[in-house]
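Input set for joint prediction.
Command: fold jointly, output C-alpha cells.
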Amino acid sequence: MEIKVVRKVLDANDAIAAENRALFAEHDVFVLNVMSSPGSGKTTILEKTLTGLAPDLRAAVIVGDICTTRDAERLARAGAPVVQINTEPFGGDCHLSAQVIREATRELDLGGIDLLIIENVGNLVCPAEFDVGQDRRCVVFSVTEGEDKPLKYPLMFRVCDLALFNKVDLLPHLDYDLGAAKEHIRSINAKIDVLELSGRTGQGFEPWLGWLREEVRRKRATSSRHAEARA
Amino acid sequence: MEIKVVRKVLDANDAIAAENRALFAEHDVFVLNVMSSPGSGKTTILEKTLTGLAPDLRAAVIVGDICTTRDAERLARAGAPVVQINTEPFGGDCHLSAQVIREATRELDLGGIDLLIIENVGNLVCPAEFDVGQDRRCVVFSVTEGEDKPLKYPLMFRVCDLALFNKVDLLPHLDYDLGAAKEHIRSINAKIDVLELSGRTGQGFEPWLGWLREEVRRKRATSSRHAEARA
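C-alpha cells >
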C-alpha cells in the first residue's frame, strides 16, 4: 500500500521532470543537479564556481534546504541569480522534486542564462530517486566521509554522471585511500566521470570548470535554436 | 493526500515504537539511537565504544544501511552481538522504522545485554522523524561538515539528547568555528548535552563512555525489575 503510493508520487514527479526538461531545452539552458551528504562542501564549491565561470558563462542557482536562506545568501554574493527553496513548508522534504524546481524556475529569466545549477538538499539517499529535469547529475563526495559510501549508497553513484571528490587539501591529515574510493565508485558505475578538487583552496577547479564548459557547449551543439542560428 | 498517508505511516510507527519501548523496559536495556550524515564516523566511534565499555557493560548493536554488511562486519570484530538491517529490500528506506527494529530485536538476547546501540542509516533528515522506541537519541556531527548544520537540519538537533562532535583531531587543519557550531546547536535545543571526541585518535572517549554508563545506571535505577531485586 505504502509502496504503491510512493510509486504514484514518483510517476507524477517524472511527468513534471519531462516538462522541466523541455522548458530548459527550449531556452538552451544546461542544468546540473548537484547532490551530496550534508556538509560535503557543495555551497563552497559553487561560490568559487560562479566566480570562475563569469563572465563568459551566465549561471543561476536554485538551492534547496529544509530551512534557512544561508546558502542562498552566500551564493548571491558571487553575483549570480539565486532562488532559495525551503522544503520545511512541504513537510521538511529531504529532496527537491520536479514540482518545486518548476516553481523555482518561474523566478528565473531562463533566456538570460547558459547554465542552471541545482544545489539539492544534503542527503545521499532520497534526492537520487527524484528526476528534476536536469541534463546531468553530480555527486560531491568529501574525502572526510569514508571510502565505502559508493557501496552503501549505490543508487546515488549509479544515477550520477560526475563524482566530484572534495576537500582533497585534507588528504595529508586523513587515513583515506583515494584509490579504493575510486574503485568503489567504478564498481557501481563504470561510466561516471571523476574529478578531485578543494572548495577551500581552489585546487583542481580548472578541470571542473572545463567539464561544465564542455557540457554547456555540447548542449548548445545539439540544440535546435542554435542550429537555426547557424543556418 | 500524500501528507495524510505520511501521517498514517508515522502513527503506525509510533504505536510499534511504544511496544519496543515496553519490551526494552521489561529487559532493563538502555537503548540509544545514533544518527548522523553519511560519513560522520558513527561506525568508527562505535568500534571504540564497544571495546571501551567491555567487560563491565554488555552491549549489542543494530546497524542500518541501505545495503552492504560492511559496518556490521567491522562492529562484530569488537566482540559484541551485531544485527545488520539492510533497507534495500524495503525500497532503500532512508531511515530505520520501529517495525524493522522490532524484527531485528528478535535476533538478540535482550536478557543478556545492558545496552543496545542503534546505528541508524546515514541521513540528517528522515531518521529524526521515526521514533524506534529508544531511551535517548544522539546525533554525531563531524567538524568537517560545516558549523551551520543545526540550523539547516533543526529537527535532528531538536529531537536529540546528545550532540557528539566527531573528528576533533582535524580541527587544526580546518577553518571551523566550534564555538559558533555549539551556539547554533543551543539555539535549536537548549537542553541537549554536547561532547567532543575523535573516533580516530580516541581523544574525548572517557566523557562519552561516562555519559553512556550514567544513562544505563539511571535506567536501572528507575526500573521495576531492579527495584524488586533491591527490595
